[in-house]
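> Could you send the Type 2 DNA topoisomerase 6 subunit B-like prediction when you get a chance?

Sure thing. Input:
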Amino acid sequence: MASASSPHRKLLHFLVYWAVQRCRVSESPCRLTVSLKRPAEPASPSQLRVSVSDTGVRSKLEEFLELNDLARETPVEKWDGTLLITTTGINDEAIYRYRFNLHEELSSARFTRLATTYKNHATFSGTEVCLCLSNEADADDLILWLVGFFHKILVLRAANLACELFVEQIGNAESRNVCLPQDPDDVHHSVMASSSDRLVSGLKDYALSHGYTCDKCDTCILNRDLLKTGTGAANNVDRRKAKGPHVEVVILIARTASDLSCWTVNCSSTQVLYFEDFVPCPISKSSFDVLVSVDWQSYGFKLKGGFIDDEGNAVLEWDDMPLARVDIAIHTYLECAMQECQGSQQDRHLVRKALKSALSHLKADHAGDFLSCHGQRVREYVPDLAESIAGLILSSNDKEFHDECISLLGLGSDQDVSDGLVQPSICEKMIRIIELNDTKENVEDNAPYLFECEKLDEDSQLDEEDGDEDMVFDF
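Output:
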């Protein structure tokens, strides 16, 4: 199987990346279309014909010079280094066509300007890049990767960008075509929602369709509202220049369903979706280091380890996973497309900040489900401790003490006591206290008390002569 280092994959990734950036610069509704035509027979001498087109701003020919290294690494029999480029700007009067041959050493032979077509006062912009690749035995794997890559693009639901993929097998009456147009509702959602909300919505659809490995899973769709979501964001914007990287993180949790469905099979690993500038990318080393160094135990997760697979994806492995599925998406991008950003150290800091924010958000909204490992161990003792305290209260012969405890617990009638509500009330209060204090940020002054009694003043001292006087304790 072709790996992430496959020159074909690198080439398509590069062309799609720059097409998306041109659409972002446009700031107008745009369309990205990727088309691939392949011969029916793998042994056919015909080549794979690839087209990547967009309706963004006019391309700069300097963009394609970045393919120099890839062209040198790629054998001529796999790609001859030729690109056919058609481009025009919104204010241009003509459509310009060029041929680039990156395998040519002489600059004069590399670049050829082809016939120009005039637009006759039409107003539009865009770029199309066409090329031919060898029809190798791994073409099926390339197409499979391209379909998965395109599905990941749709997860982001970038604003003002509609995407579609066409894969056509030619020369065979029985061949099947693959068409992946974007749902019109996704485009509308993209315009109306924030980038974080778009990522949440896209990641939910990605998870509920099992990574788009099935068209629809009825059981999972019914469980959409049961998903638990944590979001976090961080940025370091230069206010003087309106520049700086942004990082958004979304964590999606599916609890194990009670009925027999695909959600009941616990997934012991998570493949992290990583995006840069609105395009799926192999995860950076700095971001991966953040993922494996975060204190997951503080949020109830037991991380066994992690690795980067052959596709460049980060994979996290969980130990004793009580959840059906954990999905994580990380998106780092610059506010202005095509601008340069420096420093992986800065990215590392922002990714860590956004990830911890997403985990904190998840915990704040669902405290009982994401107690730290320490909090979970403490909570295990609550039923026995509540039973002991309730026994002390109910067995007391001191009616004043008995009535005061019942009142402090919020149980105002003898009926509540006879119905056995003392122990459940104590248990509920103790669990609430554990959940509220299950963070490092909490300090003693913020900690609530089981019984809201008056605290002793820290500066007061107990007189030895008054040792027999009543003393006030806090539970």
